[in-house]
Amino acid sequence: MSKESPRRSSVLWLFGLAIAIIVTFLTSYEVFGGSLEAMQETPSWPAVLFVNALVGISVALFVVELKRDALRVLMTVGLALLLGYFVTVIFNMDAASRFSSGDFTVQLISDSEPVDNDNTDIEYGRQRGGEFNQPNAAEPLTEATYTFEGQAGDVVTIVALAANRRSEVDMQVALLDPDGTILAEADSISADIVEAETYEDVRRETDALIENFELLQDGIYTIQASPEDVPFSTTMSEALNQTNVAYEAFLLGPLSRVNRWGVWIQDALTLILLGVAFAIVFRAEQFSLGAEGQLYFGALVSGAIGLWLTDLPPIIVLPMAVGGSMVAGFLWGLLPGALKAYLGANELVSTLMLNTIAIKFYELTLTYQLKPDDAGYIASDYVADAAQMAPIVEGTQVTVAVFMVVIVVLAAWLLVRRTPLGYEIRIIGSNIRFADYGGINTKRTIMLAMAISGIVAGMAGAHLALGIHRRLITNISFALAFEGVVVALLARNNVLVSPFTGLLYAYLRAGAQFMERDANVSFEVVRIIQSVIILLITAEAIASFFRQRRIRRRGQVVEDESSPPPALAADASST
Amino acid sequence: MPLIEAVDIVKVYPNGVLANDNVQLSVEKGEIHALVGENGAGKSTLMKIIYGLEQPTSGEVRLRGKPVEITNPHIAIEHGIGMVHQNFMLVDSFTIAENIILGKETTRGLQVDRKQAIADTENLSKQYGLYVDPTRRVEVTPVGMRQRVEILKALYRGAEILILDEPTAVLTPRETDDLFKAVRNLVQEGKTVIFITHKLREVMEISDRVTVMRDAQYVGTVKTSETSEAELARMMVGREVFMVVDKPPSQPGEAVLKVDGLTYVNEAGRKTLNNATFTVHEGEILGVAGVEGNGQTELVEVLSGLIDATSGMATVDGKNLLNAGPRQVREANVAHIPEDRLTNGVAAQGSIADNLVVDRYYRKPFTSNGLLNLNALRQNGQQLINEYNILATDGDVPIEALSGGNMQKVIIAREFSSNPRLLIAAQPTRGVDIGAIEFIHQQLVNKRTDGLAILLVSADLQEVMKLSDRIMVMYGGEVVAMFENSPDLTEEKLGLYMLGAERQTAEEMEKNA
């Protein structure tokens, strides 16, 4: 745990710089599809490069700040992804069912004259068909039998095939003589015949063909057609293939196009702000979950300012709107802080209650004050152009909020590491009784920590209201607020690491969206992966909690060497 | 043939810590064998190996000459090895008899035979002269008796060899005497006792032979009758230890701390501090003697601003200390070494440098223009680490990585370096090893000689008697005696006041005020 030598720390910084450059390059390479022309054709490509450089710096900060712990964070996420992979495989186990279901056709071909018999199903030169294992059917068809009348000397050819391009059913077919004994069977067609296109509609080797079979007696023959049984190996390999496709969409989707990249970054900006907000209160060991309520008030105030001040220039309106959100967040954070400090109200309970109040107040105001009368759904008008955060990358919601986030992260870092207040927050977080003993005004500090956290959460609200939606809508936080807890915990409550963990978490969220869209994997699977991550983080937190306790207990043993607990001592003295 | 031996024991913990390095121990039947060493010397590890709580990396334990594998405490108990831990392992809500028979109950039908349990306990108690009250619940039992319960519990399970892990740490002087009597009884009854401690005076008093450990290694085994405290200390620390502090006569100056009629009523409505009146002068150490829990803690907490007094007054150089909070107390030039190091004295996850400035981080040079001056913090850390011999590479090392003694040095460094007028030192050497005790004692005396007023509260009566210029005795929240410290003042005499058997009149106290 001791501090590394100057040489080691400069090596670390160099290493961080290398990582920053590599990450910047790789993300940009992916977004622009690896071509320089494509990059130059993209509007506002320098801004994309700039944001990617910030991403690179975030990764470098993560490595430099957490050092070996960075590996543990990555392992946590990696393990969660791995578990998610297995879950996805299980969800994809039915991928191979397309080989046993679908439309099929059976053709009966012969040069001989067809015998006309109304009691048979099919005659020479005709075809029949249906659908095997139709999903949702009450009694799905698993085998089709067709009878025809044949005469000795007839030479017949039977083709069983998937009826159209959509159907991938793997056919097998058998010919039974009038006594019911099997004369011929087939479950495939040789590649040559498929190539040669001898038979119309035959596209796959998985179709089945009985060719030029000579009938030896007169009578009613039967054709049996059914899908082949799918071997387990095929089931598995299909499930894995599907999962690989899904995971590719998951892991590379956010970088596949500039607009998708934008979705990632815009979400990340919100999450980083929330992560910083939570990191500040968690640093002071206050389990305050008020960010959601502060976000709603921040969004409401900034949105309202944006709606009312329509004829002022952006340079005045935007700072006013953002400033308003900061004040709102500050006050809504100060309230539970004061309740905790002076009335001893548990911050966990009070912030959750205040969240509900904030959300309902937001909805009330939105519905009855801000919504235009003629709007058919609950949303305000768009805020004035001057109040909108201007996009810096065309076609995305990546706005000037990028700069706001950079400033917030730096300011939060300065606060925690370089100010007396930050010192007080850190000491309180480590041991509040020591802080009291040392003369720190713990009540005031706790209140301020919660209020400052509120400022940052309020800004996240402004980002949503003025940058992303550009108006006020219901459910504006879209459940992002609590994801901020994960961002802060993953970052070990280190504000300089929050940008990385925010980006990482937003990346997983964005990837999940694209996985759902491209690979038809349900969002639920993605939620499972996210839950696994949270579980693993919690498990890690528990592990370090027990480590702490052991240290305390060890200290306790030392203490015990010369003193009984006072109550007992008093008792002892009276005996 | 020795009864129990540990031969060439090596223990490496999974985290790479070498706790025992070729340790030897040989205990004869019927002896009291003391095992001494500083904190972290490996005594406890060795005992855990013998009791089956840990497995040695190499080496073996022999019982009556035969190697035995003790893989868990049950096997140890089968072999007749019993251990009394430092932290008692009793069920608080059970009676003493129930605790003693727990796990080896005689049953009648489905029920525990309580009468039998009580009878067994009484017999055992008589046989070994260890008085307990079988029907008393443990939670209302005093510490000394709890310890006897632990010993009886081991005996009930057929222990022939008893390991006592720092048994006197929790006892008052009188209880210690009782314990020693009981231990001698046990030996007369044919038992063998291994006695772990780091208090040399007790070693000299009770043991037949002593094995000394230092830094995980075996230093040697000597007969108690052929050694001295000084020699044992040298063996433990590895160098000459000056058990006597160099203490010039006191030259008290003007009064610094004036306490008058100080009273504190706790939440339960009890007067835990009752009408305390005394004065501490420049250049003197006023020691507070008393059995713990007689108002010392409250006195310290009220004076340092952690809790509010109910009535009375206390001033330092005329400035009020009461009900103003720790910041104001510290601004009045009062320093405070808290009695509970880990609870109050440090932020364990914080760095040394951060811990060294908790009382002054907001002042120049540590804060200038509203920002912390990291350089000043670092320099301050480095300087105090050097000045107070704190074993750490630099100020960025977190407190939790330090040993108890070094943590205490961090606290001492912080409190001394604030240039106080008054120092309130509560249990300044609790749980600290001999080398560090020596250092802390000398520092206290030096500061007092330089003119600091010190209020010393300690549960270690010897420490109070060694360092103080005057001694004040507290009993039941009251100041019951005030003495000028002199060689005539004996532990026994103080003990009478500490236990409430005697108290001085106001005039007698006035004489030494």
Structure description:
The complex is a heterodimer of chains A (575) and B (513). Chain A has helices at residues 6-31, 36-41, 45-66, 68-91, 191-196, 232-252, 258-283, 291-308, 314-343, 347-370, 401-418, 420-430, 432-437, 442-468, 480-490, 498-519, 523-560, 566-574, and strands spanning 102-110, 126-132, 144-150, 155-162, 171-176, 182-186, 208-214, 219-227. Chain A has 575 residues and is α+β, with helices and mostly antiparallel strands. Chain A has 2 domains: 6-91 and 248-545, ABC transporter involved in vitamin B12 uptake, BtuC (Orthogonal Bundle); 101-229, Jelly Rolls, CATH 2.60.120. In chain A, the strands form 2 sheets. In chain A, strands 2-1-4-7 form a 4-stranded antiparallel sheet, with no helix packed on it. Chain A is elongated and about 110 Å long. The model of chain A is unreliable at 551-575 (pLDDT under 50). Chain B is of the alpha/beta class and 513 residues long. Chain B has 3 domains: 4-237, Rossmann fold (3-Layer(aba) Sandwich); 242-333 and 421-513, P-loop containing nucleotide triphosphate hydrolases (Rossmann fold, 3-Layer(aba) Sandwich); 341-419, no CATH class. Chain B contains 18 helices and 24 strands. In chain B, α14 packs parallel to α15 (434-449).
What share of the residues of chain A does DSSP label as strand, in percent?
A: 5-15%
**In angstroms, what is the radius of gyration of chain A?**
34 Å
What is the CATH third-level topology name of the largest domain in chain A?
Answer: ABC transporter involved in vitamin B12 uptake, BtuC
Secondary-structure-derived class of chain A = alpha+beta
Number of H/I helices of chain B: 18
Mean pLDDT of chain A: 83
Instruction: Please give the largest β-sheet of chain A.
Output: 4 strands, antiparallel
DSSP summary: helix tally of chain A: 18
Q: Specify the helix fraction band of chain A.
A: 55-70%
Q: What string, H for helix and E for strand, traces the elements of chain A in order? A: HHHHEEEEEEHEEHHHHHHHHHHHHH
Q: Looking across the biggest beta sheet of chain A, what order are the strands in?
A: 2-1-4-7
Widest sheet of chain B: strand order? 6-9-10-3-11-12
* Beta-strand fraction estimate of chain B: 25-35%
- Looking at the overall shape, the CATH architecture of the largest domain in chain B is 3-Layer(aba) Sandwich
Structural class computed from helices and strand pairing of chain B = alpha/beta
Helix content, binned percent of chain B: 25-40%
Chain pair sharing the greatest interface: A-B, 45 and 69 residues
Q: Major sheet of chain B, described briefly?
A: 6 strands, mixed
Number of strands of chain A: 8
Count of structural domains of chain A: 2
